[in-house]
Amino acid sequence: PAIKKEWDEKKYLRTFYEWLLKNNISVGIADKAFKMWKNKSIEILTANPYRLVELRGIGFVTADRLAHQILSDVPQNFRMKACIQFVLGDQLLESNLCVTYPNLKKHILVLLAECDKNLGKDVSVDSYIPLVSSTLKENLDVFAVIKDIEEQPSMIYIYLKKIWDQEQYISNA
Model pTM greater than 0.85? Predict the structure, then answer.
C-alpha cells in the first residue's frame, strides 16, 4: 500500500508539473502548492487561482498575473476577496491585527492599479470601490467588520475572521 500511494503521488506530481508548465507557473510555486493541497492542487488552482495568496511568500500581484493566465474570464469577486486577504495578511506581518476601512481601500486600490497596469488594462480603480464593501459583506466567514463605537464611532476596522475570533477568545479568557 505504501508503494502504491507513493506511485500515485508521483504520477499526480508529473501531471501537476505538466499543467504548471502549460500555465507558466514556476517550480517554486508548484512545490508550495503541492505541499499545501497535494493531489487537489490542479483542481483548486483551476477553480480559483487566487488561492495562491494562501501560500507563504506568494503575493497578490503574482497570484493575479497567474489567475489571468489560467482563467480566460477572471471572476472579480475571487480577485477582490484574495486582494483583501492579502492586504490583511500583509498587515499582520507588520503586527497590525486589523486595518481601518479607509486604509484597506487605499491598499487595495494601489495593488489593483499595479496589477491592471501589468496586464495592460486601463481601468479606473474607483470602479473597484463598491466591490470592496460587497466582498466584505458576502464573506463574513473570512472577514470581520467591526465598528469602534466607544472610541471612534465613524471608524470601521477589518480583521481576518480567524484573527478576530482569536482576539475575542483571548479577551474572554
Answer: yes
